[in-house]
Specification:
This protein is of the alpha+beta class. It is built from seven helices and three strands, in the order H-E-E-H-H-H-H-E-H-H. It has one domain. A three-stranded antiparallel β-sheet has the order 2-1-3.
Length: 179
């Protein structure tokens, strides 16, 4: 394995290590307050992780939204990471290329970066009002770490044939070297 791919694999593994706490630990706490007769009272406080949000949406009958968040925020990133790991372990160029292209194709549907921005916008919106307050929790930072590590790992990984050789030459090299 080339050094570039070894670094990419290490970053990919590190991103998976950050993903689990990113989806299970609290992400954001939103608090609502109301002022009555000169005193401020807390009327709402909610702290949720991504998986708790999915469960809450499912329990309230919003199965489509829960399913979409789970699919694009959890399942697709895991499948993409596993496929990239499998592609790195293959010696044959053609299957490696097909798996890598499939992983690239589904990575367009991994909406983690968009999710991070949405949570941050919700945080800023809540901070901008007098009656709402928001705090980013540890899960947010784990999730941001996952997103950044995942993006950087993809910059290091090279799963297609070497530059300067045709696919056929690379495929021929990989099939003859395996004998």
């Amino acid at each position: 394995m080339k050094v570039r791919n070894a670094i990419g694999l290490a970053l990919l593994v590190a991103s998976f290590a950050a993903l689990w706490p990113g989806i299970t630990k609290p992400l954001i706490t939103i608090t609502a307050k109301i002022s009555l007769f000169g005193t401020e009272r807390e009327v709402f406080r909610e702290t949720r992780s991504i998986l708790q949000t999915v469960e809450s949406l499912h329990d309230s009958g919003n199965d489509l939204v829960a399913g979409l968040i789970f699919l694009f925020g959890v399942v697709v990133p895991i499948v993409k990471g596993v496929l990239l790991g499998v592609a790195l372990s293959l010696r044959a160029a053609l299957p490696r290329r097909y798996i890598a292209n499939f992983a690239r194709g589904i990575s367009k549907w991994a909406m983690n970066d968009v999710f991070v921005v949405a949570v941050y916008v919700a945080f800023l919106s809540a901070k901008a009002t007098d009656q709402l307050d928001a705090n980013l929790e540890v899960g947010f930072y784990w999730f941001v770490s996952y997103v950044l590590l995942s993006l950087v790992s993809l910059q290091f990984l090279r799963l297609t044939p070497d530059w300067g050789t045709s696919d056929e030459e690379s495929i021929e090299r990989s099939t003859t070297s395996g004998r």
